[in-house]
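User: what does the whole thing look like in 3D?
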Amino acid sequence: MPRARVIGVVLLGVVVYAYGSTSEVAWLFLLAYWLWALAIAGGLYAAWNARGLEATAELRPAEALFEGDEADLLVGLRSVRGTRGPARVSGLVAGRSAGAGAGRVPEDGVEELRGLGTLRRGVVRTSGFVQESGDPLGLFASRRALPDRELALVYPRYASLGALRRQREVEAALAAPRAGSGNEIFGVREYQRGDPLRRIHWRTSARRGELVVREFEPPGQRTLTVLLDAAPKTAAEADQAARLAASEAWDCLREGGRVTMWAPGLEPSAHSWWELLEWLARYPELPAGESAPPPAGEAVAVTGGADRGVFEALAELRRRGAQERIWRLDEVGLEWPLD
Amino acid sequence: MAAGLKLRLPASPVEDSGAARVCAWAAFGVAAAAIAYYGQDYLLPPLAVGAAGFGHLVSYRRRQQPRGFWRQAAIAGLVFVCLAYFVLDSVGGIFGGQLPQAHFALLLVAVTSFDLKTRRNLYSSIWISLAVLYLAAVYAWDYPFGLFLAAWILCLAGFWTASHLKRIDARTTVPVRPVALGGLAVLLGGAAAFWMLPQPSAHPESPLVVSLPNAVHFQGELENPALPLVQFGDSSGANSSVDLRYRGRLSDAVVMYVRTGAPAYWRGQVFDTWNPSAGQWTAGRADFRTFPPYADQHRLPPPLGPQLGTFVQVFRVLRTLPDVIYAAQPVQAIYFPAEELRRDAYDTWRAPGPIHAGQTYSIVSSLPDYSPASLKAAEGVDMSLNRDPAGLSAAARQLAREAVAGSGPTRYDQVMALTTYLQAHYQYSLQLGHVPAGRDPVDWFLFDARVGYCEQFATAETLMLRSLGIPARLATGYATGDYDPVLNQTVVRERDAHAWVEVYFPSRGWVPVDPSPGYLALAATRFPDRFAASGLAHLIPHLTLGAPASVVGSLGLAGVLPGAAALAVLAVAAAAWLLSRRRRRSRGSAPPGQVELLRLYDRLQARLGRRRGPPETPLEYLAERGRPPLLEEVTRYVNLGAYRGEWPAPEVVAALATKLGAR
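Assistant: Here's the predicted 3D structure for the full assembly of 1002 residues, as structure tokens:
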């Protein structure tokens, strides 16, 4: 796409050419031809340069990030068809502007490191990223909007609430034990090859039109459902709720228990530690899903007090025999770690 | 109340790119170098470039600071000083009066370079350097000026590149090979277009004339004539003469360059009085009219008869000439930097004094339609008196009558018949003996020598036409010279000094006719083909045979060097590209050693008398051939490469090839 500068070049060439035709200074024709040739070459170069460029963006460090960590953003450009340039990529990452420009983009790429500072819980994504390229003279520009992309999840901080002290050791291998062999019915799931036929829940299977089997818990396992507000009033409140939920989950999982995160109208979490953290990192921007709170031996509500759905779910679990506890955020406050 | 209209340019960003500033300064340096080279001015341009460099440095360091009042005031004051210098030097010539406009522009850039804060400021500096370059182009009459232009355009491209890269926060680096290829394509493509495409000429009637009063008066002094045909007397030219017994030296020295829209004869003095005893032509009339230095078509009489158009000539004199202002006739406008000009009775223009080397002046002439049909139709009252055949022998008169016998009834037919006769029956030569004492020089030419040069031919035709009752006179000046259609200019040398005939046609005035063999009888009757649309078939042979040859010829051996260098660079670049492409492809398609090994395997099979069949595995082939040691070794490498991807190093293959060669 031509920029204003190319109009200037062409017009300058026209003026020089016209003056050459009236002044008998033949060199002005050569100058005009060179100016026009510059414009033509600029257009061809820009068309060539626009193909084969690829924008890159990643966070450093690339491993698990928790709120309060510091990270750097690496934005760059890579050529997939030989050396290209000049080009620039720019946009927003975690609410901060970021970009990288290079006059020469080799195949192994160019990168620009930028500190993002202290991270907040949530999804770090690129937004409004634009890749610009053109000719070296700046006569023509090609502009391509890039789709938004998730770069990383920033998990909430957590601590063992039993001792109210900070726990940062992450046991990556820790996972919720698989249900299925206990005595108490935990729920139902889709039939898989190898499941005993006697566990098929025929009524549910008939209703759903596919085979469904009952799941049982191992005997004596602690099961915990953490209930959160679907729409916390503020981001700070959501952060604090996520921290408390993560801490509750951490304590339960350390004891070999099983944890589910649930919020009214939102899709509940899976049960492994990292899936729980991911759910909490995205909370409350989660996909919608209508479901009853999962059965549990213990229910903990973390709420600002405004969501009736949380209290109704807590009452339902209480009726089904679950022990209940409540973290009231207006009482706990938003400071972390807790005293 | 109507709202006031505010015209305000959008804000220009502060230019943070040091490289862009260097390019802007370099562009100015190129323009100043061109002025120094072509204006032979070696003092002010380097001073201005140095000052501008310092100014750029100051501007770069202070670019983020607000503009101070006193600095602005100082710069404004210096600009006025430059203006005063320009006026004083232009009018009074107190600093030499050489290129005052260029000096003004150079000083202006040097002064304003201390206040180049924004990108727009730098653009201003670059455009002024373009103006300086244009002033140099006015004086640049040779091809090397293209190098200055190329350097300037590269500086401009560099400025654009640096400022653009700064805008996108990129370092000033670019992909070298694509950009170099693009730059080369631009330079060669632009040069090819300049070379191949015709150069139009538009509205030459109103050239942009920037003139200031000039204090040069008529002085009554004359230099030795540069036109070897004419012997000068006084400044009026009345006593000047052409002596048929005298021939000046005709060297290859360049007399002047003429940048012209059409090839023509550059006419000087005209003679109408023949003295047979002395063998001399003189001008019979000494009256003249005075004109201001710029006389346009409103002051001059319109040309007679149909005209094809007008064209501009810019003359640059290279050696001192007498006061005759050479020009294509008829002149429609003239600009000559002097206090006043004179035009004599023969429409020849005179300067107040000698025209010194380096002098430039401009002429606008009309190009009359001298087609046969037009001249045959020329009718009217014949007012000319130049029909006195005095001094021509009876034999010559008889010859004239015989020459035109059988021609058509019109004056044009008779003139052309006589011209054709002289061109066909007499030879042109500069190696001419002396006219014997007491022998009429015209009779000697016509009946004894039958060989002559332009003066003999022109004199004979003039007198013979007069004997037929046709008014004629002798014109002198320079032939077109070596015309270069690319630069649209001619190089006029001493050897181009020429004499021809002017014949009076009623209602058309004096028409130039050239009886010398090898010249067109009616010169410059049309514009050269300028437009490709008028016929590429005409254009291409014209340029192929005309322009390059004349350009190279005018530059001598040095003229071949740029083209040869460009071809060499192109050839080397093409070879390097092909080589690197071949290497890339070979690297990309096969690992090292694979191709060599398979070729060796193929050679080995050929050596063994039978090639491996398509269903045959290498091991089967090896067993069938009796397991010769070299084949066994090669087969092992082939299988390792084909099935495990481990091809041997090229050195290993080379060693195997040596073994095969030794067998």
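In plain terms: Helices of chain A lie at 4-23, 27-50, 202-208, 235-254, 273-282, 308-319, 329-332. The CA atoms of residues 163 and 275 of chain A lie 24 Å apart.
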